[in-house]
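Supplementary Methods, section 5.1.

A reviewer requested that the exact input to the structure prediction be made available. We therefore reproduce it here, unchanged from the version used in the analyses.
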Amino acid sequence: MAELIVVRHGQAAFGQANYDQLSDVGHQQAKLAGQALAEMGWVPDRIITGTLERQRDTMTSMGFDQTREEHSGFNEYDFHDLLHARFDGAVPDLVLGDRKTHFRTLRETVLEWQDGGLPRSAESWVDFENRTAAALKFAIETDARRVLVVSSGGVIGQLVASTVSAPARMMMELNLQVKNASITKFIFSKNRVFLQGFNATPHLDATDTAHLMTYS
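The structure derived from this sequence is encoded token-by-token as follows.
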């Protein structure tokens, strides 16, 4: 069986005008994730990211410098667009600036999206399901034995939920658990994919790195 490891990008710039960039903590998290894989002797022979800056920069900070591929199916759903669709373009300041309020509201918004709501959103839930499935297919249709992907929390939640045939709403429950720079592992053979580990952070669990643990 071949192995697919999907790492969530490091901490991004929550509350900033440009969310799509890593914070200093995000770069540190990514570096530690790369070191953890190296210490396990896990060296990828194929690497892939989405097209987002925070995903690309995470792979760079992880220390892998071989030729990389990109697939937009690994990009996160556009939560800014979903919130604007729900609030008709007038997202409350508290939702934008307060983490607890933001993620509670985002959960409610994504569940509404999954149920076919938010018709003015740029991407439908079905489109998101289809493109993440296409991205997974792209990653596993390969002769490579160790594939490394950097993606985002919502995509990882969806990949896990779909792999274990969980109900659609489980995607968001998983999404909210995914830690920055965490490691989720699948094994695959031909078109068969199995979940082997979810949301592991051995590189952040030690006493001297625990302060770097973040979820957004």
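The mean pLDDT is 95. These observations are discussed further in the main text.
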